[in-house]
């Protein structure tokens, strides 16, 4: 397990992460730090713990909204894929019925041809 030093709201923390995840952890840390800094600028010095809690809540709110939107988009995509698949199924069904009808017609033509050959 890797250990990374991160700085959030001016404080340094040692955080464990999987090998190779150090850069991603640094990126996430910057997002959290920027959110806290933005709130500090907006609300002033209201306490580090309070700012951290507010930042966590706003990030969680954004995450849940993004998940909700993603769910809507996934449902729309699924519906579109199903709609696109339906005409293909109808076309396959139509093609199958046409082939069967042509086969039946060919058999009738053969029967008629045999009957005509017998008469001659």
The counted number of beta strands is 2
Order of helices and strands: EEHH
For the largest sheet, list the strands in their spatial order.
1-2
Largest sheet: 2 strands, antiparallel
Q: Helicity, in percent?
A: over 70%
- Count up the helices: 2
Globally, the shape reads rod-shaped
* Whole-number total of structural domains: 1
Mean pLDDT over the full residue set? 91
Give the termini separation. 94 Å
Structural class: mainly alpha
Q: Could you state the oligomeric state of the chains shown?
A: single chain
Strand content: 5-15%
In terms of per-residue confidence, which ranges show pLDDT below 50 for 5 or more consecutive residues? none
Radius of gyration: 34 Å
Notes on the structure:
The chain is mainly α and 120 residues long. It has one domain. Helix content is 78%, strand content 12%. The chain contains two helices and two strands, in the order E-E-H-H. The chain has helices spanning 22-43, 48-119, and strands at residues 2-8, 11-17. Strands 1-2 form a two-stranded antiparallel sheet. A hairpin with a 2-residue loop joins strand 1 (2-8) and strand 2. The relative contact order is 0.06.
């Amino acid at each position: 397990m890797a250990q990374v030093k991160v700085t959030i709201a001016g404080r340094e923390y040692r955080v464990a992460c999987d090998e190779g995840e150090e850069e991603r952890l640094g990126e996430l840390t910057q997002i959290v730090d920027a959110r806290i800094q933005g709130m500090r600028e907006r609300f002033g010095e209201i306490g580090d713990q309070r700012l951290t809690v507010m930042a966590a809540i706003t990030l969680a709110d954004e995450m849940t909204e993004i998940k909700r939107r993603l769910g809507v988009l996934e449902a729309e995509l699924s519906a579109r894929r199903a709609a696109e698949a339906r005409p293909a199924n109808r076309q396959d069904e139509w093609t199958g019925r046409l082939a069967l009808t042509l086969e039946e017609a060919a058999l009738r033509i053969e029967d008629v041809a045999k009957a005509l050959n017998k008469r001659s």
